[in-house]
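lol forgot to send this yesterday, sorry. struct tokens for the thing we talked abt
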């Protein structure tokens, strides 16, 4: 045990003399405040408000006339009505440049991402036309660029092909639209019910690992287009992919090499140059795989293709929920990052409603799941976007592309599209973030690596399951095994701190001071009781060996204990009885409002005596240190 034991504790106290415990010459000790009893309805309302409405979304509506409330309601649903009033030509100039820039990136990326989802290229282009328009009117982020993303495309393609073979295009597309519909419903529901905190259960470390693993998997998947391999595994794990590469490496690979390095500059320029060379050299007739036909025209309606009945309804719902949650997590993370950089507030619940609405509408207009894109949003930010109008500009460019330009992409080599996807996903591998996670929290690093290796060596969904599982395991571990600490007095102060953190802190003779750094619930109450008793046993052995003053008071410092339930109260009662048998008095210090209220409601305060509940540890020491007896 670290820390020194002293019979004389220096405490700087300037309090008026008075007798709280009828002990002469003791300084005044302030009683712990007991809050007035709240009605059940008021307590429930307060808890509900803090859980779901902590940001007070209805505050702007207070004391406003009905007409103003209507305007505020519309602005809350469509933020463009608020910031649009101050929009000007200067802002549009930045949005125009940013919109054109992300459009040039989106077109080639979309063609590649469609392949990850096992869909025809036009469906990804559709998804960069309608959803960004909807988001521009409903989203609260100024910087997010909307469209298909690599990770969600891969996840969707992996899950869909397990239910329907992609060669059955009609049924496969219908299931994709169904999954997109339910992804949108999931996202919007979380926003409307203000359940956005659920996405926080996927920790930052798990997301870093999952994204890195997905980036490796996506890169490996591009070897098919890179090397011109015609027969390729449908599995996503690294072992299956590399087996496909090695067993078919001589099939068409050599014929690709002279056009392989054409894509070397920017994505769209690469596509234009490569497409031009394939067209004039007829390379497609000599073994170079090309995109082939992309359907011309705007999004056709697809509401009648969604499975609202039958066996595929539940499958579409399941896939949609998973894809929707991952898409939501990625988009919110991006939005928060750029909002912090530009110092504005991102409304998470509005974002969920906006993303959900755009995906529901998208599912009815031949789109698949769209969300905020890391690569596009970064380009959008660096290009100088000011508002969500950059998404509208991108949508207009995509509309022009769908109406006029799509036939020109017929001769685009698959190798170029693959290289563009690889360049896009490389940024998802954040080595610096992994190093930082290792330095800060080893358990977080295990979650990160678990998600990474799960995706790379097994499958995307297993990696996702591992990520969620480890995140929950960490929460359970922290809840069921909270930290505890022995406290000592810092020299020349009345402050008591962890003796491991402050080696010069001195333990008080005859008094053991323990701090519990967590709420006490049914899941950890027994552990907390046993851990406190272990501290006591260890201390008693040390005291006996050193022939010091025996432990007569056990003080539980309760300031970190934010709440306690029935099991927690029961554990304290058991602790009290155990200590009574050992002739040790239980004393509580600084219980919070919620805790002290339950201590009195349960009768525990009366059991140990109100005079055994103090405002601070210093008050306990002032009261009992002079009364400790020698062994």
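and heres what i got for the seq, position by position
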């Amino acid at each position: 045990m670290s820390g020194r034991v002293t019979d004389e504790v220096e405490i700087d106290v300037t309090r008026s003399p008075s007798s709280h415990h009828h002990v002469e010459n003791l300084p005044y000790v302030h009683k712990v405040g007991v809050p007035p009893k709240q009605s059940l309805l008021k307590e429930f309302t307060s808890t509900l408000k803090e859980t779901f409405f902590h940001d007070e979304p209805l505050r702007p509506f207070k004391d406003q006339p009905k007409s103003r409330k209507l305007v505020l309601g519309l602005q809350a649903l469509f933020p463009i009505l608020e910031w649009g009033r101050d929009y000007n030509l200067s802002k549009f100039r930045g949005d125009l440049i940013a919109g054109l820039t992300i459009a040039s990136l989106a077109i080639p990326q979309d063609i590649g991402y469609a392949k990850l989802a096992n869909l025809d290229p036009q469906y990804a282009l559709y998804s960069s036309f309608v959803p960004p328009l909807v988001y521009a009117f409903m989203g609260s982020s100024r910087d997010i660029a909307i469209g298909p993303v690599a990770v969600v495309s891969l996840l969707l393609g992996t899950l869909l092909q397990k239910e329907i073979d992609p060669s059955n295009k009609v049924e496969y597309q219908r299931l994709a639209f169904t999954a997109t519909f339910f992804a949108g419903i999931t996202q919007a529901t979380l926003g409307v019910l203000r359940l956005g905190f659920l996405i926080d259960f996927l920790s930052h470390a798990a997301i870093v690992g999952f994204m890195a693993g997905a980036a490796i998997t996506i890169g490996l998947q591009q070897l098919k287009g890179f090397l011109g391999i015609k027969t390729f595994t449908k599995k996503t794990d690294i072992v299956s992919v590399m087996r496909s590469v090695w067993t078919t490496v001589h099939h068409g690979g050599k014929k690709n090499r002279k056009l392989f390095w054409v894509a070397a500059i920017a994505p769209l320029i690469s596509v234009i140059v490569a497409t031009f060379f394939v067209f004039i050299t007829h390379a497609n007739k000599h073994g170079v795989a090309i995109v082939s036909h992309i359907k011309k025209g705007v999004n056709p309606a697809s509401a009648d293709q969604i499975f609202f009945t039958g066996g595929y309804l539940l499958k579409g719902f399941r896939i949609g929920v998973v894809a929707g949650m991952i898409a939501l997590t990625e988009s919110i993370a991006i939005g928060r990052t750029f909002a912090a950089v530009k110092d504005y507030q991102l409304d998470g619940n509005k974002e969920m409603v906006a993303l959900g609405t755009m995906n529901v509408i998208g599912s009815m207009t031949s789109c698949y799941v769209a969300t905020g894109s890391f690569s596009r949003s970064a380009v959008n930010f660096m290009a100088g976007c000011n508002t969500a109008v950059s998404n509208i500009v991108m949508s207009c460019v995509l509309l022009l592309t769908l109406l006029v330009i799509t036939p020109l992409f017929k001769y685009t080599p698959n190798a170029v599209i693959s290289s563009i996807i690889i360049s896009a996903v490389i940024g998802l591998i954040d080595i610096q973030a992994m190093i930082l996670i290792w330095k800060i929290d080893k358990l977080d690093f295990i979650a990160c690596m678990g998600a990474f290796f799960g995706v790379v060596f097994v499958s995307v969904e297993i990696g996702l399951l591992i990520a969620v599982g480890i995140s929950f395991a960490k929460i359970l571990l922290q809840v069921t095994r909270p930290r505890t600490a022995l406290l000592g007095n810092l020299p020349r102060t009345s402050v008591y701190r962890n003796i491991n953190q402050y080696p010069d802190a001195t333990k008080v003779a005859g008094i053991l001071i323990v701090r519990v750094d967590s709420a006490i619930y049914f899941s950890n109450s027994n552990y907390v009781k046993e851990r406190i008793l272990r501290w006591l046993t260890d201390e008693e052995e040390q005291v006996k060996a050193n022939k010091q003053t025996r432990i007569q008071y056990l003080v539980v410092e309760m300031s970190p204990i934010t709440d306690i339930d029935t099991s927690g109260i029961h554990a304290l009662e058991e602790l009290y009885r155990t200590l009574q048998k050992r002739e040790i008095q239980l004393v509580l210090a600084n219980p919070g409002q919620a805790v002290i209220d339950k201590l009195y409601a349960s009768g525990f305060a009366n059991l140990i005596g109100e005079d055994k509940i103090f405002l601070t540890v210093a008050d306990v020491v002032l009261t009992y240190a002079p009364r400790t007896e020698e062994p």
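Residues 88-246+259-286+326-475 form one domain. anyway ping me if u want another try
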